[in-house]
């Protein structure tokens, strides 16, 4: 299987799975699966710690819920990619 660069952008850095509800961090620009990043932030905050961006190499050390916005363009791109992939497999 060949994974293109654009397909790697569909993968959540936390779950390592294709995102279904991507959210973008307004501060550092990285994107995650909504449920995964929310769980990570809540878990860190319960332990009175800051949640760091899980993207390797990112120095953003305080990801907050208010930094996250729905990434509709990426969600549509993933859906479009999956429809094309489904059509090719028939």
UniProtKB/TrEMBL annotation:
GO molecular function per UniProt? ligase activity; SUMO ligase activity; zinc ion binding
What superkingdom heads the lineage?
Answer: Eukaryota
Named in its record, the pathway it takes part in is: Protein modification; protein sumoylation
Give GO cellular component annotations, separated by semicolons.
chromosome, telomeric region; PML body; Smc5-Smc6 complex
**Where is this protein localized, as stated in its record?**
Chromosome, Telomere; Nucleus, PML body
Family matches, as Pfam families: zf-Nse
Main location group: nucleus
**InterPro entries the UniProt entry points to:** Nse2(Mms21) (IPR026846), Znf_MIZ (IPR004181), Znf_RING/FYVE/PHD (IPR013083)
SP-RING-type domain boundaries: 1-83
Q: Which GO terms describe its biological process?
A: cell division; double-strand break repair via homologous recombination; protein sumoylation
Q: Which UniProt keywords apply?
A: Acetylation, Cell cycle, Cell division, Chromosome, DNA damage, DNA recombination, DNA repair, Isopeptide bond, Ligase, Metal-binding, Mitosis, Nucleus, Phosphoprotein, Telomere, Transferase, Ubl conjugation, Ubl conjugation pathway, Zinc, Zinc-finger
Provide the assembly information.
Component of the SMC5-SMC6 complex which consists at least of SMC5, SMC6, NSMCE2, NSMCE1, NSMCE4A or EID3 and NSMCE3.
Query: Which family does the similarity line name?
Result: Belongs to the NSE2 family.
The protein's name is E3 SUMO-protein ligase NSE2
Q: What is the lineage of its organism?
A: Eukaryota, Metazoa, Chordata, Craniata, Vertebrata
């Amino acid at each position: 299987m060949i994974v293109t660069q654009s397909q790697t952008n569909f993968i959540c850095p936390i779950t390592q799975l294709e995102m279904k509800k991507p959210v973008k961090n307004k501060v550092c620009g990285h994107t995650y699966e909504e449920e995964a990043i929310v769980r990570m932030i809540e878990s860190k905050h319960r332990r009175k710690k800051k949640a760091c961006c899980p993207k390797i190499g990112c120095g953003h050390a305080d990801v907050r819920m208010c930094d996250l916005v729905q990434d509709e363009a990426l969600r549509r791109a993933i859906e479009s990619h999956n429809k094309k992939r489904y059509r090719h497999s028939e």
